[in-house]
From TrEMBL:
Chain sites annotated for binding N(1)-(5-phospho-beta-D-ribosyl)glycinamide: G11, S12, N13
Active site per the UniProt annotation: H108 (proton donor)
Lineage: Bacteria, Bacillati, Bacillota, Clostridia, Eubacteriales
Protein name: Phosphoribosylglycinamide formyltransferase
UniProt-listed Pfam families: Formyl_trans_N
GO function terms (MF aspect): phosphoribosylglycinamide formyltransferase activity
Catalytic activity: N(1)-(5-phospho-beta-D-ribosyl)glycinamide + (6R)-10-formyltetrahydrofolate = N(2)-formyl-N(1)-(5-phospho-beta-D-ribosyl)glycinamide + (6S)-5,6,7,8-tetrahydrofolate + H(+)
Species for this entry: Desulfosporosinus acidiphilus (strain DSM 22704 / JCM 16185 / SJ4)
Top-level taxon: Bacteria
Amino acid sequence: MRTAVLASGRGSNLKALLEAQKRGELPIKIVAVGSDQPKAAALELAKDNGIPTQVFAPADYPNRQAQDEELLIWLKENQVELLLLAGYMRVLGPQFIRQANIPVLNIHPSLLPAFPGLHAQRQALDYGVKVSGCTVHFVDEGLDSGPIILQEAVPVLAEDTEDSLAQRILEAEHRLYPEAVRLLASGCVKRVGRRVRI
């Protein structure tokens, strides 16, 4: 599957996907990487791997709809069949989700539906949960509310800080995201309405 990735930061999940692709574990080809942050390390990682990049900085658009429209053009020009959000810190608008008409996946650092949105690790610590983790899900028109594909639990330790918990969850993300993408791209996972069939 021709795949595009959107990332806002350092690109560690992009790196995990690229490594799995190079090992022949993923039936995808990452053909484009975009970011809302012109200086995102993920863009440099993509360039180092010979992947074309594009910046969609919010300041360059009069509103979110205009940004979403350019994202849609980018997907079409690159003949993208699968879009992966890998630490992309902007919410895609409902119109984008409807018009993209391709699977859009996201990885989130909690066991959804618990702790959606920003600062999931801080939320987990504030609530005093004993187990957190990460979730790969289809993106829908809500906030981290789409059908769940895979989850991996990560214990919350008594001495955990937001950073230490985030780091352990990130290690789980690097295992979980490639596996979820493999299942989807190989036809083992299908979205049926609000449910996922494996």
